[in-house]
Amino acid sequence: MKAKVKPIRLTSVVAAFMAMWLVILSLGSGAAAAAGKEDWVKNSLGMELSSAILIDADSGQVIYEVNADTPRPPASMTKLMTEYIVLEEITNKRLTWDQVVTVSEEAASTPADGSQIYLAQGDQHTVKDLYIAMAVGSANDATIALASQISGSEQGFVAKMNETAKELGLTTAHFTSATGLLDTTVISARDMAKLAQTILKKHPDFLDYSKIQEYKFRERDTATMKNYNWMLETNKSNTYLRAYAYEGVDGMKTGYISAAGYTFTGTVKRGDTRYISVVMNTKSKEARFFETAKMYDYAFNNFEKKSVLPAKSVVETLESVKIKKGVEKTVPAVTESDITFTVKKGAEPKIELKESNILKEEELVAPITAGQKLGTVTYEYTDGEGNKVDRTVNLIASEDVEKGGWLRLMFRAIGQFFVGLFNDIVNLF
């Protein structure tokens, strides 16, 4: 007796296939959705991206921003934190540029789905060579080799990254890898710019590495590493990249994973003005540079730096500060540095003294030397659109004040005693 076989309907096969495909997709999806144009935010410069910011590198003053506080995957811009920590380790003499690093198994087994320099376990390279491979070629294996050297493992280093982020006040930053390959690492454009600003202020030599166009890692290598930052000014002599080269650009870091889109943290300097930019989720390698150029053009065409108060200026109502045990009872005070804002060209800055903070009397005891900090003063600038920016500078002594002799101080104390006693008696009536 033959068993009857029920014919399989085509619709059932299609339905089963679609169900299986949806399961596969759900299993393969990452922690963050892939970036795309649906996340782009409208802005006055017509940039196609999800978030961006441009700040003055010296003051941190925001020149332009778009959705700058939303945390997003930064991709390989993550390496800026790794690069910063390495520089800190060198500054604190826990690491040296010529120190030889033996490549760990973890570094050698870095997945091949990203930039790398093809390190093998046991290879030995200097910190400097690995740092250049990370800064120029965005090499993930070199990055992990340095992370392992500092903290024993990548995850140990990740803990250090998050501690450092907290110390720097990067409130949106959450690191899960040293490289940026994981889409669970997130940070806002504003915090990324703040990190870049910290690097440039504390370690200006960083630019010596970020502006290298190409680098031969090993003598036997047949090709050199090429810098992914096509905006470098030095690329104006490169036939293939001159369309992206921008006058004054000398850093900092590009990035890409599907969840992040194409990202770029850049910096540009012309004259005494340096800007830091961040763009996140642009549509292509080329677009991240073109969108960045829109912000640079906007800033250089419309803004200028203007000093509103010169250094060594006397502050109204704070011409002098009281001190203790000096030949004089007060010391003349002036601002330590000038106060400069980035303002719209042709605009007359409106500023006012917002607040002053003078050190406690116990901290202002003679002898006082010229240049000694007496406190701080904060000025507020309001632009034509009502936006306010604060700038704080030190208030310092403009001349020396010697410590008074014991006899002078004794008579001064006696005088103060009787003045106080007289006032107390007056207050009784």
TrEMBL record:
<dbReference type="InterPro" id="IPR037167">
    <property type="entry name" value="Peptidase_S11_C_sf"/>
</dbReference>
<dbReference type="InterPro" id="IPR001967">
    <property type="entry name" value="Peptidase_S11_N"/>
</dbReference>
<feature type="active site" description="Proton acceptor">
    <location>
        <position position="79"/>
    </location>
</feature>
<dbReference type="GO" id="GO:0008360">
    <property type="term" value="P:regulation of cell shape"/>
</dbReference>
<dbReference type="GO" id="GO:0009002">
    <property type="term" value="F:serine-type D-Ala-D-Ala carboxypeptidase activity"/>
</dbReference>
<dbReference type="InterPro" id="IPR018044">
    <property type="entry name" value="Peptidase_S11"/>
</dbReference>
<comment type="function">
    <text>Removes C-terminal D-alanyl residues from sugar-peptide cell wall precursors.</text>
</comment>
<dbReference type="GO" id="GO:0009252">
    <property type="term" value="P:peptidoglycan biosynthetic process"/>
</dbReference>
<feature type="active site" description="Acyl-ester intermediate">
    <location>
        <position position="76"/>
    </location>
</feature>
<dbReference type="InterPro" id="IPR012338">
    <property type="entry name" value="Beta-lactam/transpept-like"/>
</dbReference>
<keyword id="KW-0573">Peptidoglycan synthesis</keyword>
<dbReference type="GO" id="GO:0006508">
    <property type="term" value="P:proteolysis"/>
</dbReference>
<feature type="active site">
    <location>
        <position position="138"/>
    </location>
</feature>
<keyword id="KW-0961">Cell wall biogenesis/degradation</keyword>
<dbReference type="InterPro" id="IPR015956">
    <property type="entry name" value="Peniciliin-bd_prot_C_sf"/>
</dbReference>
<dbReference type="Pfam" id="PF00768">
    <property type="entry name" value="Peptidase_S11"/>
</dbReference>
<dbReference type="Pfam" id="PF07943">
    <property type="entry name" value="PBP5_C"/>
</dbReference>
<feature type="signal peptide">
    <location>
        <begin position="1"/>
        <end position="34"/>
    </location>
</feature>
<protein>
    <recommendedName>
        <fullName>serine-type D-Ala-D-Ala carboxypeptidase</fullName>
        <ecNumber>3.4.16.4</ecNumber>
    </recommendedName>
</protein>
<dbReference type="InterPro" id="IPR012907">
    <property type="entry name" value="Peptidase_S11_C"/>
</dbReference>
<comment type="pathway">
    <text>Cell wall biogenesis; peptidoglycan biosynthesis.</text>
</comment>
<feature type="binding site">
    <location>
        <position position="253"/>
    </location>
    <ligand>
        <name>substrate</name>
    </ligand>
</feature>
<keyword id="KW-0133">Cell shape</keyword>
<keyword id="KW-0121">Carboxypeptidase</keyword>
<feature type="domain" description="Peptidase S11 D-Ala-D-Ala carboxypeptidase A C-terminal">
    <location>
        <begin position="303"/>
        <end position="403"/>
    </location>
</feature>
<keyword id="KW-0732">Signal</keyword>
<dbReference type="GO" id="GO:0071555">
    <property type="term" value="P:cell wall organization"/>
</dbReference>
<comment type="similarity">
    <text>Belongs to the peptidase S11 family.</text>
</comment>
<keyword id="KW-0645">Protease</keyword>
<keyword id="KW-0378">Hydrolase</keyword>
